[in-house]
Amino acid sequence: MSLKLPNQMRAWWMHMGASTTQLQLREVPVPTLGPGQVLVRMHAASLNRGEFLTGHGLHGAPDTWKAIGSEGAGEVVAVAPDVQGLSLGLRVMGRCAGAYAEFALMQADEAMVMPERLSWNKGAAVPLTFLVAYDMLVQQGQLHARTAQSTQPPSWILINGVSSGVGVATLQLAKAWGARVIGTSGSQTKIDQLKPLGLDVGLVTRAADFAPQVLEHTQGRGANVIVNTVGGSMLAENVRAAAFEARLAVVGYVDGVVRAELDLEMLHAKRLCMYGVSNKLRSQAQRAAVVPVFVRDVLPALDDGRIEPQIDSVFAFDDLPLAKARMEAAGHVGKIVLSLD
């Protein structure tokens, strides 16, 4: 089942070398629909820093060209015969390979029907970052949503690099769950921009020196969930800033530090739990398994406005090099979006 489609489309490809990347806009065939898939006419896709960084393994084999982009939003224009529950014309958002293109394939069990109030650009900013935040905070971080009947004090969340796309999504999800949030950033301007989103404490630092302030703001208890978007340079300080039985999530290493010393005595005494958050080795079935619970728990907050995806900037489809430069300059707060409209 499909609409009448062109044979060719424009798509961005990238070559990643040992230390440099090269972008190329190509004319390529529209993807062929496979079992369990829908074809989406893309309206927007968002950038993710890890895709452009060597060593993160998101690009695939080194020294090769690859269609790029990993999440976006658009209109369903073709549906595989075995797919149930999705139809032509639906507005969907989701993770998908090759999202920087006029058309892209989504696995049907990862495609989410967009809340009506979300624009294409905001829909494109949701799938990867908010799924990662949900994984870190709720699934592995065991953060429970506070209700009016809650008797326990709110949990404290510490986010290293709070102004990143994942950092902002984690802040917003944590606030929707009733937690208090401490965020670090090297920019006071970025901290000020995040205050309206509910950032309780902003610490202006790029150094591993924040544990004393975290302990001060948490009355000596430390942070209950720590989200490390920076890398190994923050590990030791995060352990020092952790509360008893805290959970420490490692989601990136933009600092390039992938080896770090770990204070086993403190890990042991505090009964800490450390875990990685990555989809690199997950099967498609494992990635899809989280989508229904994410839809149940998070989409209502996106639908009623409790969570509003934070867009830093929007670039035209042809301007991906400029969007990439914006990301690499590290001046953004929230998501950078590539618009096909």
Shape annotation? globular
Structural class by sheet pairing and helices? alpha/beta
What is the name of the CATH class of the largest domain? Alpha Beta
CATH architecture title of the largest domain: Alpha-Beta Complex
Kindly state the percentage of residues in helix: 10-25%
> Rg to the nearest angstrom?
20 Å
Strand-residue fraction?
25-35%
Unreliable sequence segments = none
Q: For the residues shown, what is the average pLDDT?
A: 94
Order of helices and strands: EEEEEEEEHHEHEHEHEHEHEHHHEHE
The number of helical runs is: 11
Number of domains: 2
Number of strands: 16
Distance between the termini: 24 Å
Largest sheet: 7 strands, mixed
Per the CATH scheme, the topology name of the largest domain is Quinone Oxidoreductase, Chain A, domain 1
CATH superfamily of the largest domain: Medium-chain alcohol dehydrogenases, catalytic domain
Structure report:
By secondary structure, the protein is an alpha/beta fold. It has helices at residues 120-124, 127-139, 165-176, 188-194, 211-217, 235-241, 264-270, 284-289, 291-297, 299-303, 320-328; strands spanning 8-16, 21-29, 37-46, 65-67, 71-79, 91-95, 103-107, 112-113, 156-160, 180-185, 201-204, 223-228, 242-250, 273-276, 311-316, 335-339. The chain folds into 2 domains: 8-126 and 301-339, Medium-chain alcohol dehydrogenases, catalytic domain (Quinone Oxidoreductase, Chain A, domain 1, Alpha-Beta Complex); 131-276, Quinone Oxidoreductase, Chain A, domain 1 (Alpha-Beta Complex). It has 11 helices and 16 strands. It is globular and about 65 Å long. The chain starts with 7 loop residues before the first strand and ends with a strand.
